[in-house]
């Protein structure tokens, strides 16, 4: 087994495993080159040869302990028949789904596989090419986060459009969540069958919901997805990332069906160490901004993170994705530091 799998299965390990959210991304010149060759971002996601190449780039360069499939959470919406585009400098743009007629058109969770077959192909290629001790993380967006893009047609700070829709059109909203839950189950099962060793669920906009809503529309659909998949694939570990949910992280840590709770950089680390770590293996929470700073500033922060989390199993990661302006020498410093850390 690998260090990463041993750690998240609760076995004793001598140091925390390390990987980064968005580790294959624009901060790497080799990613920018391959991306150019692919054409658009979506072309890159659906080209299994090139998607395999960019997944491997950060593994080859830095020696991370886990690889994450190169794809995007919005592909599943594309596969459901929604028009999805990534516009340079603007992020994702989609045709919004709002009324019963639009919802009916995307009610086809069983038919997503043809469009997504290149992603499954990428998983298979990666399993052949990755070093044996580097497991592959498959992933999907949580239904709520997918719904925010679907309802609003683009990302929106605070997700207010989707939140109002949740309140004002609750029946339609629940129908959307159900469709996205079913499609995600289908999608993740195929990733597992193709060879993914671990699954991560990203609920990046969970923090836009109030506490009751988080439980109902972030936690519940995630619970349904993980529980259903674990019935068929009980040994696949799940990482859940409900970003920015504040003290509701505590509710998530009480849930038994998943394995690792990924935490953002906004939580107080001492609070995490006292309230979350005794109940759940955690992953996080270095603020990605420190990767843009001087070595000295980064080093001080690294010392704090590893000191605060040292008493329980822990996967080193960022509190959110690495940004395009991260310095390569800082990533090297972090990997080197963590590989020399003794727990
Ligand atoms: O290395 C990896 O982490 C694997 C690949 C991966 C990407 N996106 C590639 C990507 C993963 C796991 C994601 C998840 C994702 N995608 C999330 C959840 C995690 C998070 O960041 O909160 C979300 C919300 C998305 C949706 C998305 N994709 C947005 C909003 C954007 C535009 C913003 C941006 O950073 O440009 C993307 C584009 C995207 N997805 C890029 C990458 C490498 C940048 C695209 C480019 O090359 O221009």
Write up this protein.
By secondary structure, the protein is of the alpha/beta class. It has one domain: TIM Barrel, CATH 3.20.20. The chain has helices spanning 3-8, 29-38, 41-45, 48-62, 75-79, 100-105, 113-129, 143-152, 160-168, 170-194, 211-232, 249-253, 269-275, 295-308, 328-340; strands spanning 67-68, 84-87, 91-94, 136-141, 198-203, 238-242, 260-262, 281-286, 314-318. Strands 1-4-5-6-7-8-9 form a 7-stranded parallel sheet. α14 links the parallel β8 and β9 (314-318). α2 runs antiparallel to α4 (48-62) and α14 (295-308) runs parallel beside α15. The longest helix has 25 residues, at 170-194. It is globular. The chain starts with a helix and ends with a helix. The mean pLDDT is 97. Bound molecules: coproporphyrinogen III.
Topology:
Layout: H1 3-8, H2 29-38, H3 41-45, H4 48-62, E1 67-68, H5 75-79, E2 84-87, E3 91-94, H6 100-105, H7 113-129, E4 136-141, H8 143-152, H9 160-168, H10 170-194, E5 198-203, H11 211-232, E6 238-242, H12 249-253, E7 260-262, H13 269-275, E8 281-286, H14 295-308, E9 314-318, H15 328-340
Parallel strand pairs: 1-4, 4-5, 5-6, 6-7, 7-8, 8-9
Antiparallel strand pairs: 2-3
Bound molecules: coproporphyrinogen III.
Category by helix and strand content: alpha/beta
Look up the CATH topology: TIM Barrel
Shape assignment = globular
Number of helices: 15
**Low-pLDDT regions:** none
CATH architecture: Alpha-Beta Barrel
Count all strands and give the number.
Answer: 9
Question: How many domains would you count in the coordinates?
Answer: 1
Helix % is: 40-55%
Strand content: 5-15%
> Can you identify the CATH class?
Alpha Beta
Mean pLDDT: 97
Rg, rounded, reads 19 Å
First-residue to last-residue Cα separation: 19 Å
What is the topology, as strand order, of the major beta sheet?
1-4-5-6-7-8-9
